[in-house]
Write the structure tokens for this entry.
Amino acid sequence: KQRVLSGVQTTGNLHLGNYLGAIRNWVEGQNQYDNYFFLADLHAITVPHDRTTLAENTYEVAALYLACGLDLEHTTIFVQSHVPAHAEFAWLLSCITPLNWLEDMIQFKEKRIKQGQDVGTGLLTYPVLMASDILLYEPDKVPVGEDQKQHLELTRDLVDRFNFKFATPEAPVLKRPNPLIRADGARVMSLTDGTKKMSKSDPSELSRLNLLDPPDVIQNKIKRCKTDPVRGLEFGNPERPECNNLLTLYMLLSGKPKDEVAAECKDMGWGQFKPLLTETAIAALQPIQEKYHAIRADQSYLESVLRSGREKASEVANQTLNKVKKAMGYTLPS
Ligand code: TYM
């Protein structure tokens, strides 16, 4: 079976971008693959964090993974910080990562500007840790949203660099992963500005729909979301980014095919479409929320899931790490 790996940062409530761009696709393909999905709590501290909510956020995302439909029969769920190999490998890789590769990363440049003075070195080396997360598990596919594409490219470049330095073409040590980015949902846009992606770091709550938003909040956010004065709704008009985004949300949340949605909405006005989208979003999120609350109420179950995840993940990760250290010339403890 091919292996799939991906993760989400544990920085609070997940939004529809995380779900439609990533988690939904993990769930959909999981029966075919051997899956590893983890909680990126080491990445979560690359921005200033609150120590009193870090653990809770980790459990919350773990419960959401399960509530969204990840099935432990096919999937290993674990916490990044529970498997020390991630941090250790990140150090080794950072020593062969050219500084300018990291300085050129779009997300680093954007976040650096946003954060002003409070920028730790971890924000710069973030993609090296991400490459380590991936390469330790030798996955065939890494399903992510569009915004992670550049980080996946860096990961592939690091594989080539590592193998060139420490291996032979006949017997490469690291394996190149393939990003898996879907055409629809890979870039869910903000509800208040169709030219910006939906993001956890947007200061306005109105800009995103969170997976745990109750029905009245969903209704209010959709009521107040940005639209345009044009009647008739359409996909793909670059002059109407909000229209394309909201139709895409409706399509993905309803599960209807694109041409059906296009036909259904082509003569609609916003006054008719918004209640339809509201109803569809509430109906799509309700079962996830119900499952979430049930799972989150059983702390010992969640802990046991993460404990067995950690055991399974550690085994795979340590094997790769030993291979890497050997290739780099380290002595291995006997
Ligand atoms: P994070 O936590 O920002 O986002 C988790 C996943 O959600 C996707 N995503 C989106 N997709 C569509 N539209 C959006 N508006 C949107 N916002 C977020 C992201 O692309 C991602 O797939 N660096 C990663 C976490 C990570 C990781 C890894 C992922 C750490 N190590 C190894 C894969 C493999 C991140 O910050 O994702």
In short: The chain has two domains: 3-181+299-328, 205-294.
